[in-house]
């Protein structure tokens, strides 16, 4: 999405929010007093319109099942199981414009990475457009690269030959898979990853990522912490490392 | 029938008996499929059919308005006709160990008593003992009425063989008309599915208890209070109960609240909010241990809880507008969502 005009700043009242349909997607504009924020307009949980929710100046809450987000970052708070996709906002001459931000900025694991390191990581990322049906990796392939979903849908299956089983799927911008690439002596893939729809992925080499993070240990530590949480969460089921 | 649910994190496989709702089959096997009302109104249990045939037992369910395409369906209303593969775009885990896994059962109506002109106290004896958590509900059905209804337990007992409910007559409601027709329903066989519901209370939560009930929403609150009393909870934490009804003739459980106040001491406060009239002085004088106030229940709660919401866990139940108003009030008072539990009697 190119830079896109959404509305006039005066259209959204102080501490209020409004959603707009732009090129087939809903975008929520929030007026937080001193600045504006823009997010995906539908709740990542069950596609409920977020403009019907609550905004208290700090937290945005979906009225359906009370998922909440930090209004400054879109980070999930409390019950929420997914962050909100954030758009970069520009206000110029009283008009609000948004730009879609990079999928890397939507990656939970990279949330605390310094802007400089994030830029380095952006430089490492290869953007790949893959048609539906593409096998991204097979069981037992070496786990060299990590992937970030930008759009589309990726499914994972475990098992071999005719004894395979679906082991989860990913469909949100910023979801990461193949994170075994960040582990020492990376294990081999234990699942098969296939594009279920035409998909766009960012592909990052694990070694190169680790090198970039070694140069910035503070960011590196935060990434490893979030990675540990991710691993813990996924040990209850999915095999998409 | 074999059901396969593809969730975001993994695949769940389970069997469904003929005629059994897909939601019920999964829950009964300890799979924490998403649901809220379990009765076709909220849309939380929606799933997408990937393959197989299903029958929709209630094509007019209001919850269907949250479905986006023809192959989406409500797991709480649909039954598999063949093996079914369905997709649930959520993380679906197994239920926590220690939670009460629901199952289908049966029982009979053991007694009924009118508490007010439109509220009935009903005891159901179950064929088998049921374990449930304080604040939970069951689905209950009778042969003469299509579909099941959610009713929250009033009591809290281990291995319960008797479930107690309070049911308010809904004008033109189908089960209401059957129940309040004047014919005695004593001895009627009922089918049950439960326990259900996430608005559960455990003494280990260790927070101040806030309960805001609109009308028969008080049912689950009584169960929570019963559990708290058994655990001497109010010697360690405060408890504030707000019970909202329209007028003095709609209020009940005042003797029970008085007994609880005596048993639990200063820790527990009970406030009855009348939305449509000033509390009559007769009522105020007869029940000195209960506070009466005028206003909508969420407004009254807001007034009396000012400055005391910092460490609460809140339980809300009743008609959806009352629950929504309370949720809004609490969120805007900076109570975090993980400390708000609710059942909408939709
Ligand atoms: C979690 C929960 C807990 C509840 N606890 C209580 C309680 O403790 N006390 C109380 O008085 N009420 C409670 N209710 C409300 C209760 O379930 C009924 O909605 C209410 O009693 C009115 O029933 P009715 O048949 O008179 O009204 P109706 O309007 O005829 O039906 C009400 C509900 O019954 C279900 N239903 C109706 N027709 C069908 C059908 N053909 N197939 C399938 N389902 C159908 C639907 O869920 C509908 O919303 C609770 C509701 C929920 C969701
Ligand atoms: S849980 Fe099925 S509609 Fe509410």
UniProtKB/TrEMBL annotation, chain B:
Source organism, top-level taxon: Bacteria
* Entry's transmembrane regions: none
InterPro entries for the chain: 2Fe-2S_ferredoxin-like_sf, 2Fe-2S_ferredoxin-type, 2Fe2S_fd_BS, Beta-grasp_dom_sf, Cbr1-like_FAD-bd_dom, FAD-bd_FR_type, FNR_nucleotide-bd, MRET
| A Pfam family the protein falls into | Fer2
Residue intervals of the 2Fe-2S ferredoxin-type domain: 1-92
Tagged with keyword S-adenosyl-L-methionine: no
Q: Which UniProt keywords apply?
A: 2Fe-2S, Iron, Iron-sulfur, Metal-binding, Monooxygenase, Oxidoreductase
According to its UniProt record, which cofactors does this protein need?
Answer: FAD
Provide the FAD-binding FR-type domain boundaries. 102-202
Gene Ontology molecular function, alphabetical: 2 iron, 2 sulfur cluster binding; monooxygenase activity
What's the protein here called? Methanesulfonate monooxygenase component, reductase
